[in-house]
Prior knowledge:
- By secondary structure, this protein is an alpha+beta fold.
- It folds into three domains: about 250 residues, Beta-galactosidase, Chain A, domain 5, CATH 2.70.98; about 325 residues, Glycosidases (TIM Barrel, Alpha-Beta Barrel), CATH 3.20.20; about 70 residues, Golgi alpha-mannosidase II (Immunoglobulin-like).
- The chain has twelve helices and 36 strands.
- The strands form seven sheets. Strands 1-7-8-9-10-18-15-14-12 form a nine-stranded antiparallel sheet.
- Helix 10 runs parallel beside helix 11.
- The termini are far apart.
- Its EC number is 3.2.1.-.
- Belongs to the glycosyl hydrolase 31 family.
- Pfam families: Glyco_hydro_31_2nd, Glyco_hydro_31_3rd.
- One of its GO terms (molecular function) is hydrolase activity, hydrolyzing O-glycosyl compounds.
Amino acid sequence: MRKYSVSWYTLLLLVLYCGGQLIDSCQSIEQRFKFPNSDVYVRLRRGEQLQYELMKGSVSVQTVTLDTFVSSGDLELTSTGGYKLTSDVDSTSIEFSLVRSEVVSGTGSEVTHVRIARSEIVLGTQPTDCFDLQQKHLHWFSGPEQKNQYWPVQRQEHNNYSYVPKEYDNCAITERYWLNSAGVIIYVEDSVPLFLEQNTAAHQHQLCLRANRALPYDYRSTTANFVYHIAVAKDAKAAHRYAVKTFLGKPTGIPDERMIKHPVWSTWALYKTSVSDEIVREFAKNIIDNGFNNSQIEIDDDWEDCYGALTFRKSKFPNTKQLTDDLKEMGFRTTLWIHPFINIDCEAAYAEAKELGHVVVNHDGNPETRWWNSDTDQALAIDFTKPAAAEWFIQRLRRLQEEDGIDNFKFDAGETSYLPSDPSFEDTDEGEISPLQYTKAYVRAVSTFGKFLEIRSGQGTQELPVFVRIVDKDSNWGWNNGLLTLITTLLQMNLNGYPFVLPDMIGGNGYAEGPPNKELYLRWLQANVFMPALQFSYVPWNFDDEAIEISKKFTDMHAEYAPYIVRLFKRAVETGEPVNVPLWWLDPEDEVAQGIFDEFLLGDDILAAPVVVQGATKRDVYLPEGQWNNGNAMHELYNGPIWLMDYSAPLDTLPFFVRVGFKIDEDQD
Length: 669
C-alpha cells in the first residue's frame, strides 16, 4: 500500500483550502480522487466530520457524511487501485475500491461501481454514514416495505430501526437497496448488522446507515463488517437494471397462470376465524351463483385442532377430503393458510418439535416465543435454517395434501420479530450468523410446493417463482395502510426485485375500521385491475346489483389483459425487468413523473390512474412521454408528456391509457 504522492496527480487531485495557513492548522481539507475510465470522482472533505461527495462530471449526485470518523492522515493508494483513509482515533479505516467502470450490457449505460468498506471496527462504536435526501431535489425509491408506504420514499421516518424483516410497520421485505433519480444506487451487504436513521431530529433529510452489534443481531460477535456499494449510472432506470444484474437477481420461473388470470377467494376478511365446512361450501356456491371465476378458494385462520397441529378440527371440518373433492367438482382448487409456529397447548406437536431440536432457540437455549395468535412465551417457531427441521415441517404439509386433498398453501409470517429474542442459529453457507437467514430459509423451503402458493416476507429471495403477498391492508382511504398505500407498496416491491406481487384483499381486511363500504371496495378493485392478480374476500353481492355488475366488469378486464401480464412475467425471468413500474420508467429524466404516487404502469404499455380519493368522480392524470389512447375511449389520442385535468371517473370507471400500437397478445393481428 502506498501513500499519496504528487506524482499520482493523474489519478488523484489534492486541493488544499487553508487560506495560506499550514495544513496542520487548516479547518477543512478537500481531496479529490478519480477512478480510471470513468467520469465519476469522489470529493473528500475533512472538517469536524468527514464527508465525501460523488460527482458525475461536474454534477454532484450524492453527499455522504460520516458521523464517527475523524482523520487527518494521508490518503493511501491501495494495491488494488483503491483509496484508503485511516482514523486518527483508532485502527479503523475507510476504503474506496473500484469494482467496475464500463458500459454494462443490459443497462444501456456506463456504470461506475464503488465498494466502501470500514474495517477494524472497534467494539462499542457505531459507524454511521448519512446520505443527503434533499440534495438537488432528488427523489428516492426502494428500501423497506412499510405500513405508511410513502412514494417516493424520502418521506419515511426510521429511528434506530433494525433492518430485518419484522412485524413492526409491516416491514416484511427488507432489501438493503436504495435508488435515487440521479441514477445512484446504494446496496448494503447482508453481513452488516444494519440499523437505519431517517428523518429523525438529529438526521433530518438524511438516510443514515449504521453498523451496530446489537439485538436482533448477534451482539456477541467480536467483529463487525460495514460494507456497502454505490453505483452511478446515467439515470435511475439504468441504475436499477444494474442493481438487478449485480445485487438483486431475477426470478427463475413464473407463478401459476390461473392465479394471474382469475381471482383468489379467501375466507379471511369476510369470515375471520368463523371458518368451517359449511361456511366454505356457502362461500364457493355464492361465487359460482353470482357468475365469478376463480383460481382457488383459500381456507384461512382457525381450521386447526390447535395452532401448529396441522390437523383439521373435526367440529369444524368433519370430512375435509369430501369437502375438497366437492370443491374440485365445482371448479375450485383449495389452498390452506399455514404459519410456522406451534402453540404450547398443541402438546404433541410442541413436545415433538422440541425433542427433535427443530425450533429456534435463544443463546440460553430457550425456545419460547410469541406471535399474533399466542401469548408471550407460549409458542415455538420452526427453525428453517436447519434442513432436518424444514423437511419435518414440509412432510407434515404433504400429509395434508395426500389425506385431505389440499392443493397448495398460503404461507404467512417469516419475519424475524416472531423469533425468541437473541436467536441462535447454526452456521450456514450464507456466511456470518444473522436473523436474515431465517426469512431466507423459510420462504425458500416452503416455495418448494410449486407455483400456486403465496408468501409474504422476503430478503434476498427474488429468485423464487411464486407470488409475494402485500402485508394486510386496512379498510381506509389514507396513508395509514389504506388504499393510498396499495399502489406505492406495489411499486416498492417491484423496485426491490419482487415483480410477482399478490395484492392483499380487495377492500382491505376490515380490522379497526370495519368492512369497506361500496365506494371504497369498488375503487380498490379498480386499483387492482392492472396489478398481477386479484384477491377477494369481501364480496360484491353483499352490497347490491350495481356492485356485482361493476365487479364483473373489472374482473373480466383483468382476465382480458392476463396474457400481457404473463408475457411480462416471462420477461422478468429473462431480464429481471419489473412488471409494474412508476411513470418515470418511460422517461427517467421526467421530474413530474418522478413524484407521481397514484398512477402506475403495467409494463411499458398500460397506464393506470385509479381514483383513490373518497367521493371523487374525476381526477387529474399525468401521461409521460409517448402516444396514448384513452382506454375508455380508444379514439382519443394524447401525446405525452401532458396533464389531463378533470378526467371523468364515475364509480364504474377506471381511468387508464394504452400506448399506441399495443397488442395484448403478441400474435394478435
